[in-house]
Design brief:
Helix content of chain A: 55-70%
Strand content of chain B: under 5%
Largest sheet of chain B: 2 strands, antiparallel
Number of domains of chain B: 1
Distance between the termini of chain A: 60 Å
Oligomer: heterodimer
Number of helices of chain B: 14
Number of strands of chain B: 4
Strand order of the largest sheet of chain A: 1-2
CATH topology of chain B: ABC transporter involved in vitamin B12 uptake, BtuC
Radius of gyration of chain A: 19 Å
Largest sheet of chain A: 2 strands, antiparallel
Shape of chain B: globular
Low-confidence stretches of chain A: none
Distance between the termini of chain B: 15 Å
Structural class of chain B: mainly alpha
Mean pLDDT of chain B: 88
CATH architecture of chain B: Orthogonal Bundle
Shape of chain A: globular
Order of helices and strands of chain A: HHHHEEHHHHHHH
CATH class of chain B: Mainly Alpha
Number of strands of chain A: 2
């Protein structure tokens, strides 16, 4: 393969992988935008959702339910999970300082990690096929079919979320309560409903991300480290921007591909720490990210 | 009416403010001195080792308490500072052949200087961004130490010498206990004195309202830098002591989870006060030890993996419950008890 084909291959597969990162990161951005929670436990949400899906879908050797039923059951239980998390933990945090909610999410991170490992154990679970698998040929470039599917899924969900935030009354209410929770409540926005929808959306998107990544890599404890990638994505794109998520995911995935092909042979292991280096660079140069809004300081 | 009846400010902010407090402190220290002797007689040397580890963790948490509890800068990279301190001592003693008494302060200073480099991006930022910068620093530091030849890669460094005082080499857990007790008490005293100083008040002001602090004439970036500097001095000291006590340094001794435990200890104890940090450390360490004893005794049939996960679950639950229902931590429970006792039956 010549240089141009290799480059194109790296960039295209980066775009496809990046779309999955972007989709997963949107769940994080939603809670940050609407509930004003910096959810460090998000990686465990992804992990938990993926394991719930595995429990209903089953492994390739031992499928449990037919796919439509399994997916329905998965999403019902994840919605319930989102509601429970909201009611028990985050409802009472409305109006509390950001520091407390941050530490609360750290507590949830440890708690969920323990629970997930107690129930499902540390071994890697293989997920039965949820999307078609196999190679796709574009000239001399090879892409995997599940990533092409994930790409379209991610783009359509991103579009739906964008429409929700921009054009519906609900989206307006969510944006308003991100700006100022008290003022939004004074104007008749229901804090309760708002918070419920936010957390359900967060849990559902985390699960979709978990299923997509789990289909490719298998599901194990390392899926929880996803939060590090998600952090990189949202910080590059800007913490409160959905479009920023897409841009950030692409930059991260394409960058990781290029680094692992061109630099890793010389400096081993740098590709797995690339996201951390990116985070440091972005925060040094442009802390609000590429698309984020700069905060205004008030006393 | 009972209450504070102190005439001047110096008496009001003194470390030990009354005769009764003197008695409490002396009795408490006396108990800490006698405790290992009792354990020694009953043959429970595991508990002495547990206490030694607790002292080392307490020193690290006192540092985080200054950065996070007082100055309000959430740090998720504290175990990286501990790690750097440990590796510093290991390198200076093994490779350069220095005495440990020289290596400890030098390694702490070098670590604190490295921390300043990290803190420079962190002080430009606020809130979560600081947490993420320190988190990224933790992973990058771990990666660099793992890849370098001099630090022994993933195998780490072994054979760090034990400290010696006047010809007596500190070898056993029992001897270590008294050394660590003295160092910890000194650290607690330093930490309390920082709270009482002008710098400590500047930390608290920045935590409560940064913009207002700047308006009051506090140089916010400089004060934040000092918080990181002092905090990592404590952390590196803890790391150095750990390296010499264990006596191994490997990167997997210092995990991201440790940083979370440290934060959890501060939250559970009650952030911003030295007494709170001490209580938080004691509380979480006791829970972990109780879980460990239950797991080891075989009362409940558990695999060793399961007991680790149960520890995670219960730690997480403890942090969640404290943040939800008692955000001011153990120290506030204690203060309420005290007030209720004094004013009984007209308590709060």
């Amino acid at each position: 393969m010549d240089v141009a084909t290799v480059l194109l291959q790296l960039v295209l597969s980066g775009i496809l992988v990046g779309s999955v990162y972007s989709l997963t990161a949107m769940g994080f951005v939603i809670t940050y935008r609407s509930a004003n929670v910096f959810n460090m436990a998000y990686g465990q949400f992804v992990l938990f959702g993926a394991f719930i899906a595995w429990s209903f879908i089953g492994s390739p050797q031992d499928p449990r339910f037919p796919m439509p039923i399994a997916l329905t059951l998965t999403f019902i239980s994840v919605v319930v999970f989102g509601l429970v998390v909201e009611r028990l933990l985050f409802r009472r945090m409305i109006g509390r300082p950001l520091y407390s909610t941050f530490v609360l999410t750290l507590g949830i991170l440890i708690f969920l990690r323990g629970i997930v490992m107690l129930i499902w154990g540390p071994s890697t679970h293989v997920l039965a096929r949820t999307v078609p698998q196999g190679p796709v040929y574009l000239g001399s470039i090879v892409l995997s079919k599940e990533y092409v599917w994930s790409f379209f899924l991610a783009v359509s969900i991103a579009l739906l979320l964008g429409l929700l935030f921009r054009y519906t009354k609900l989206g307006l209410a969510m944006r308003a309560s991100y700006d100022n929770q008290v003022a939004a409540r004074c104007l008749g926005v229901s804090a309760k409903l708002n918070s419920q929808i936010t957390w359900v959306l967060c849990a559902v998107i985390a699960t979709i991300g978990g299923i997509l990544i789990g289909t490719v890599n298998g599901i194990n404890i390392n899926l929880g480290e996803m939060v590090l990638l998600v952090l990189a994505v949202v910080l590059i794109g800007g913490l409160d921007s959905l479009i920023g998520c897409i841009v950030g995911g692409m930059i991260l995935a394409i960058g990781t591909n290029l680094v692992s092909y061109y630099i890793s042979p010389h400096i081993p292991g740098i590709d797995s720490n690339f996201s951390m280096i990116l985070i440091l660079l972005v925060l040094l140069i442009r802390p609000s990210g590429l698309m984020g809004t700069r905060p205004i300081e008030r006393v | 009416m009972r209450g504070r009846r102190r005439i001047d400010y110096a008496a009001d902010i003194a470390v030990i403010r009354s005769g009764r407090q003197w008695i409490t402190v002396v009795v408490f220290i006396g108990l800490l001195v006698i405790l290992p002797m009792i354990l020694n007689v009953t043959g429970n040397m595991n508990w002495v080792s547990f206490l030694n580890h607790t002292f080392i963790i307490l020193i690290a948490v006192l540092g985080l308490n200054i950065v996070t509890g007082m100055a309000g800068q959430i740090s998720l990279g504290h175990s990286a500072f501990v790690m750097l301190g440990g590796y510093g001592v290991a390198l200076l003693t093994i490779k350069a052949g220095w005495s440990i008494w020289l290596a400890l302060p030098v390694s702490a200073l070098v670590t604190a200087l490295i921390t300043l480099v990290v803190a420079i991006p962190a002080i430009r930022l606020k809130g979560f961004y600081v947490a993420v910068v320190t988190l990224a620093f933790f992973y990058i530091a771990q990666y660099i130490i793992r890849s370098l030849e001099t630090t022994g890669g993933i195998h780490g460094l072994t054979g760090i010498p034990s400290p010696a005082i006047a010809g007596l080499t500190i070898k056993t857990d029992f001897q270590w206990y008294f050394l660590l007790l003295i160092i910890t008490l000194v650290c607690i005293l330093v930490s309390v004195n920082i709270t009482r100083s002008r710098l400590g008040r500047a930390f608290l002001t920045i935590r409560d309202n940064e913009t207002a602090a700047a308006a009051l004439g506090i140089r916010v970036p400089m004060v934040k830098l000092r918080a990181f500097f002092i905090g990592s001095l404590f952390a590196a000291l803890a790391g150095g002591l750990l390296a010499s006590y264990v006596p191994v340094v490997r990167t997997d001794q210092f995990t991201f989870w440790d940083s979370i435990w440290y934060l959890g200890m501060i939250v559970i104890g009650g952030g911003g006060t030295t007494a709170g940090a001490v209580m938080g450390v004691a509380f979480l360490r006791l829970i972990s030890q109780i879980l460990h004893v239950i797991g080891a005794s075989g009362w409940i049939p558990l695999s060793s993996n399961d007991s680790v996960y149960i520890t995670y679950t219960i730690y997480g639950l403890t942090i969640i419950l404290f943040v939800s229902f008692q955000p001011r931590g153990l120290i506030s429970i204690w203060q309420k008890l005290k007030v209720n006792y004094k004013r009984w039956p007209f308590g709060v």
